[in-house]
Amino acid sequence: MTNVVVLRGRVNRPPVEKVLPSGDRLASLDVTVPPNGGASRSEAVPLAWFGAPAWVAGIRPGTEIVVAGRVRRRFFRAGPVTQSRTEVVVEHAALLRHVTKCEALLRRVAQEITDADPGVTAPVGR
């Protein structure tokens, strides 16, 4: 088993970049994914992107992107209460208008899936 998620959606707020106490850079943004399958309405998905490339700072609301990563649930203290947040940690991303980069991203994810379980074949094509 492997934890892999691929999303295509529109950025719904500008990225917020911060430097963590460890010195790591983190970009946070949300992507709205249109309904598909059994969903009846769009869903906003929070993204966390460690060491995001410089081009991420230029992303504006409405920009369509494709991201691949993993789902994680983290816990944190908010005053006297422990809360949790589920988010996607971005490992690869591309602007949707860059078709070649999006195709390469999907091939990379398919390869990661097959590497994790050699019995699985995951063809990706047009």
Would you give an account of this structure?
This protein is mainly beta and 126 residues long. The chain has a single domain (5-116), classed as Nucleic acid-binding proteins (OB fold (Dihydrolipoamide Acetyltransferase, E2P)), CATH 2.40.50. The chain contains one helix and six strands; from the N terminus they run E-E-E-E-E-E-H. It has one helix at residues 99-116; strands spanning 5-11, 16-19, 25-33, 43-50, 64-78, 81-95. It has a five-stranded mixed barrel. Strand 2 and strand 3 (25-33) form a beta hairpin. The protein is globular and about 45 Å long. The mean pLDDT is 89.
CATH architecture grouping: Beta Barrel
Instruction: Please give the CATH class.
Output: Mainly Beta
Topology pattern, helix = H, strand = E: EEEEEEH
Q: How would you sum up the global shape?
A: globular
Give the helix/strand layout.
Layout: E1 5-11, E2 16-19, E3 25-33, E4 43-50, E5 64-78, E6 81-95, H1 99-116
Parallel strand pairs: 4-6
Antiparallel strand pairs: 1-3, 1-5, 2-3, 3-4, 5-6
Protein traits:
five-stranded mixed beta barrel; 6 strands; single chain; 1 helix; mainly beta; 126 residues; OB fold (Dihydrolipoamide Acetyltransferase, E2P)
Give the gist of this structure:
The chain has one helix and six strands, in the order ββββββα. With 126 residues, it is mainly beta. A five-stranded mixed beta barrel has the order 1-3-4-6-5.
